[in-house]
Amino acid sequence: MQSAAWYITLISVISLIGVFYFVISNSKVKEEYSSFSKAWYGVRGKWFIFLIILWVTLLIITLKPFPLPSQTENYSDKGDQIIDVSGHQWYWVMSSDTVVIDKPVVFQVTTGDVNHGFGVYNEKLELVAQVQAMPGYTNKLVYTFTQPGKYRILCLEYCGVAHHGMIGELNVKES
Ligand code: CUA
């Protein structure tokens, strides 16, 4: 695999040198540009418009499922499961450690000291949701669990010598 990558890189670099050599060696030859440039300026204008439309479309498609929920909404009115979370050097304080599946969980996350990263991991230690824990702010994270199990809370931002020891537990149960 590595030697294949090496040969592909080598061939690409040699081809690139060939292209450069061709362009440089032909750059002294004078050509009639006006007819040529007129046609290509038209193409360039259309290409530019195409790129703008593509950019706006991709922006809308990729931002629509934006993972951050409304930070101003009062979730306690909606009957969601709410957990207040506070990060500290080096432990998590959570108002509850048990939730049920198929119903949104609202984590209201802050910290008592420095910045921490609130990361929720499933039993395979895959990150399923995360939000920054910041002093003086409460960041809201809304996540609906679909699989029951023992989830782990790990810290995602280096916060001192025992950063790796900031481990919490969250029990996700069948509803
Ligand atoms: Cu808290 Cu790293």
From TrEMBL:
GO cellular component: cell envelope; membrane
Keywords associated with the record: Copper, Electron transport, Membrane, Metal-binding, Translocase, Transmembrane, Transmembrane helix, Transport
Cytochrome oxidase subunit II copper A binding domain mapped to chain residues: 78-175
Any one GO molecular-function label of the UniProt entry: copper ion binding
EC number(s) on file: 7.1.1.9
Membrane-spanning residues: 6-24, 45-63
Domain of life where this protein originates: Bacteria
InterPro entries listed in its UniProt record: CcO_II-like_C, Copper_CuA, Cupredoxin, Cyt_c_oxidase_su2_TM_sf, NosZ/Cyto_c_oxidase_sub2
Location within or outside the cell: Cell envelope; Membrane
PANTHER family: CYTOCHROME C OXIDASE SUBUNIT II, NITROUS-OXIDE REDUCTASE
Name this protein carries in UniProt: cytochrome-c oxidase
Organism the protein comes from: Candidatus Nitrosoglobus terrae
